[in-house]
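FIELD: query
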Amino acid sequence: MKGSHCLLVLTACFIFFSCAPKPSQESSLPTPANSLAPSSSPVQKTANIDQVMFDSLFVGSINDKYEIRMHLRRNGRQLLGQYSYKKIGKSIDIKGTIDEQESFVIDEFDNNGKSTGVFKGRIGSDGRLEGTWSKPNGESQMPFSLTASEGGSAPSVGDADVLAEGGGYDGLDAEAHSEARKYWVARIAKCGDSFFTKDNIFTHEFKDFGFDIQPSSLSRADTMNGIEWKGGTSANVAMTRTYSPQPTLHYNPGWSKWSNGLTEGIGRLYANMVKEKGHWNIVPGFAAGGGLKSIKCSDIPK
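FIELD: result
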């Protein structure tokens, strides 16, 4: 009888502990302080996207066929720069935006400001730009892939540490870049965090001034004529404002309001470059008030 009683007690205990709810394994394990929670996006959001900046030269191709070089500057959500096809060399202006997920839309424009194409893509964790190029209406879609050029940070004028020779170029391109640097340094002054230049009428103030070169292919006649390199150099800026001493078509007297990029009044900043028989010749492009020249910081209008 006593044995039967003990057997009943043991059986009841077994049933009780078998049916009792088991503690959750997930809740019982401590979460490591450095563990990563799953994310719906492979790119983590930037803490403050408005503070992200870079100024880089990218190289790659469209459709694995058309080789291009892209000078791209980022200031927060804004993208600005130029790109060119290796076989053509002509610079094409680009402007776009980028979001917290590093997805971007970059429009390209002709000399008249008309949109001629669109780059849509994303900056990967390795810094590569990948996506699709198309016409503005979405037709003729082609994939593109661009990688930051080694040592190819596009320099800004006015900072000796940043103005490294070459800028990711080699051979005659590096030589052309060096000559372009001299050209812009002679015409642009850095005062504080702004860049200034003047022409015969106006004083211009820029934010985030940078430059690049655009090589052009040489024809057989060019080679026969002793031309070793030809192309141009162009500058781009994040913002511009202009001081006018008098009323003009584009400006009221005094400083204008800030505008994104280059304003209509100043036009495009560029110069044609040729190396012929060992000598470089740089011819300035059109500027609204005449040739550009540097200015002393003490002479900047208030």
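FIELD: remark
Residues 13-18, 20-46, 151-156, 158-167 have pLDDT under 50 and may be disordered.
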